[in-house]
């Protein structure tokens, strides 16, 4: 790889040279501080990449590049300038410049742009070997450059700065900044994390792209490109996206005999939202990719909104044997698990599910004071064989329903027995329902309902009864003062204790002590 650096300021030229030398690539570097000398080197060495300042003695860097460009020689160019002028940027890109770097710039930015351009040069050299046509090469290079920028917009939030808008104008994509749009992610069904490498899968990708490109030919404005996992990304400003997505799915099925998954973002109204649109569409794509449905597309705004239950909440639902609620929470959990970026493959999905089930079992053990066996190996094996989210839901629901039945058959009252044990030991303390629920790893609402169902009393009534029984015993069998007895059974307000005691027993504590 040959590269020439052209800069009339010695310190800047030396800094550029040092930066390029730090790149771990096989690069031959030429330097020049004048346009005349640079032309001689370029004519003799034909460097692959020219990095030039605009303002040079004798002629501008842009004039130099124009003079170098020949039908048989089209090097890549990075223009460096201290002038943030649209005319300079436009002319730079028109003559074939890959990038426009404004001074002052960081060494890291300079190295990144040079590295990207060198990698692109290598890619384009390979394409030249295949095509042997300079015109086709230039067209593909421009598309690759455009697509690289579009992928960057998807992968990270990008503000609409002047130089970004200028690029959109040059690629006729300024509609992304001037109107609303939608973003779709699409690929062969069943591969939420991207298809494996191989010629067969590459052919599928190629075929899907051809069909979609033909469908959007008259659907302007629209642009189609691929993300880093070779999934097709479609950005479109058209309003009737439902008809378009249905056509895409049906046409690919009919012409290529392939089912595809398609995830759509909500309608976006700002250029800066491209990243958010991509994340939305990718989440919907992952879910649709593992869904048994094949003739519809899923938007990220799904009907079954809501968070899945925590292991403790799910344990409460299982103990209560709320079958419909179990199914709903499993439905939400599976979709959240599959849509998570950290679960990019089936192994991670299965691991996440097993961890969730294990946490549920731990919460149930603590709640009912009974040991349950570990997750059976048959469940592990069944999860490994799942290929759709419906299959995941079926296996999880089946296991949790069986677990719920086992709890019910063993002793549903075990939770309440454990709660009563806690009350018996700690009734004299400030013992709220929340404290007991936390100790049992249950939601307080579920504990309250279960307590009422199994004892026929509310939690507070039961606690008060326990305290009054102990108070009666102390009044008759000890010589403790009444205020001491009140405190020993959990009341720090003597008047309140007396009021509760009389309401429960029909006598004041003093009357009860002396048998009046």
Automatic annotation (TrEMBL):
The keyword Transcription regulation applies. InterPro entries: CdaR_GGDEF, CheY-like_superfamily, Homeodomain-like_sf, HTH_AraC, HTH_AraC-typ_CS, Sig_transdc_resp-reg_receiver, Tscrpt_reg_AraC-type_HTH. Residues 2-118 form the Response regulatory domain. Pfam families: GGDEF_2, HTH_18, Response_reg. It comes from the Bacteria. The keyword NADP does not apply. The modification 4-aspartylphosphate is found at residue 53. This is Response regulator.
